[in-house]
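hey all, quick one before standup. I had two proteins in the batch that finished overnight and I want to keep them in one place so we stop losing track of which output belongs to which input. First protein below, input sequence then structure tokens straight from the run.
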Amino acid sequence: MAPPRSTGNSSIRSQTRPVHATKPVSCDPQKVDELTTQIADLKVTVDGLEKERDFYYGKLRDIEVLCQENEQKEGKSDVVEQILEILYATEVSADDFEEY
């Protein structure tokens, strides 16, 4: 059996430092509970906002499809054209809100 071959300079070895866990500055159980409750409340809020966003997105999508179908059947009407313009607008400025 042949001796193992050297794969490089054996005098250079990778040096690693030991990993030490850092301890928290304070470990107040009351503060941990308070923050845990706050996180749970924020998650509930985010879930509600996501559901609301999806709900209104679905409504807007239905309006878009209805306008596109109407546009194809009857040609462009002014109202459908204005609705599609609003739906496809990329930015909303404060001036746009004054129109409504």
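OK second protein, same deal, sequence then tokens:
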Amino acid sequence: MSRLATLDEMDHLEQCRFGRPSPRHGLKLLYWFANDSLSFDLDDEMLSRCDPDKGEFGFHLFQNRYERNRVKLLPDVDLPYYVLGNLNKPRSYELPHYVREEHTRHHDNSNMDRIIVSMDNEWFEKVYVTEHKDRSTYNADATYNVSKNLLKIIRGLSLIDYLWRTGFWWKPEIIRSLNINIPQPKSTSPVNQMTITLVPDVGSQRNRVTCLEPLNEPESNQESNQESDQENNPGNIHKNNSRNIQKNIQENIQENIQENIQENIQKNNLTNKSQNISGNKCSGLKVSGSGNRSTRKNCCECTIL
């Protein structure tokens, strides 16, 4: 057999086109495998979190036979191989819905992708991805070794970021799949159509930013739209998002400051009024007359309670 290429980075996974386009399930299967089927121990070895020997999640033994070209698909080793990904196998229903959702149960490419692992007791020794050329033969030219480094990268991504970076999903498909209800932007200019740009945050598993930009504005705004299009190229997207976030933060801070100032003014006014009332408190008596005959009476300007 020829030496298998190793997928070590996300770019390698995208360029080899494994598991795509839809309805293929290989990319989603690999994401589940990296995140839920294994963990790395203190020695950086891949510890299995399932039992392939019992057929969990549709695992079953893989016979590394000679293919039609008289070549074995994988290296000869003294360890057993197990294959995962046949959605018609018993217990494959244990895989999450997002892996199985596009399975048509017909003879098409919705069930052609596989992951093959070699097992050393409780540890995965090697991980491979491949695809069926037909119903009984695997495609040796589309068989790759998956490195530990790539598995760790995948474990650090959200499913949305992962599928976006591998080219499985494009922006409109992501928005539709998430069923996002997008509010209209606050703008005085007419907006006839919205363009949506999804930006993955590769440093986080969950953070994503959705940018909205108005289209079909009057001719007077075409130049500004062209500048906006230039700013939204892949090299400047993160800068624009940072500016928008900073602008929103500044606006919120200003609104909070103004509200606090108004509240403080109202509190000060109430305090001053109460101080004036207590400082000018009437004695309740009024002096009338003059000399020794002056008398004190209740003050008519106030009432003592």
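Flagging for whoever picks this up: The chain has eight helices and twelve strands. The two ends are 106 Å apart (CA to CA).
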